[in-house]
């Protein structure tokens, strides 16, 4: 499984502060810790508190690239922040993410092509988060169709069903797992699947247990990639064992 480390995210207090104070050492240690524990790529997210995400993401990318050439996943809902990050990335980039909305697809698919980047497509639109499997699949098909039309290689597309916290969306968990499998049959070649794993355990008491059980189940449904905390050794052991 392709592992994207989630820890360089301004949502975390230490990272948010390091971005504000331009403290390279904290970011670089966080990058190296995640690589040491098994990350194949690193998510880079300025966080909701960043006042100038367009310049903050460039600083983050440049800071991380001083210590590693692993691929970086530029995590922002704003296409101009993603493009800004792409301008300074030296190695393989992952765009995290587009939605199924035409105004996003028409900007981000061409950017992914231009920079030879992988692309994460969220099965969400301006109408909101889908409430059932059919709505998720319909949005997934919209994203796949747009990529095909625009000549983007489907092997480089990762579809994300949007994992919701189990304590507020328990009834949707089965649908989320099942669409991971069904994404595969949308087209030939198949798109890949990815989840933002830690979403599932937000607000629960024993987060790491919830994370690793859900990941294990998702692997059984054919999950290809996950954004997660690779420094959680039990979680990484579960991922490896589930794949086995
Ligand atoms: N899909 C895609 N990208 C994503 C997500 C997704 N990027 C962001 C997020 N979801 C994945 N990354 C995280 C990172 C942290 C947490 C959850 C998901 C998290 N953080 C603690 C919390 O909110 O409780 C913060 C704790 C702290 O402040 O120290 O849970 O779904 N494509």
Biggest sheet descriptor:
8 strands, parallel, barrel
Order of helices and strands: EHHEHEHEHEHEHEHEH
- The assigned structural class equals alpha/beta
Radius of gyration: 17 Å
Number of helices: 9
Task: Estimate the global geometry from the Cα principal axes.
Answer: globular
Strand order of the largest sheet: 1-2-3-4-5-6-7-8
How would the blueprint of this fold be written?
Elements (H helix, E strand, L loop, with lengths): L1 E4 L7 H9 L2 H13 L4 E4 L8 H13 L6 E4 L3 H10 L4 E6 L3 H13 L3 E5 L10 H17 L7 E4 L12 H10 L9 E5 L10 H14 L4 E4 L4 H11 L1
Parallel strand pairs: 1-2, 1-8, 2-3, 3-4, 4-5, 5-6, 6-7, 7-8
Helix pairs in contact: 3-4, 8-9
The structure holds (6S)-5,6,7,8-tetrahydrofolate.
The site of (6S)-5,6,7,8-tetrahydrofolate has 17 residues, from β4.
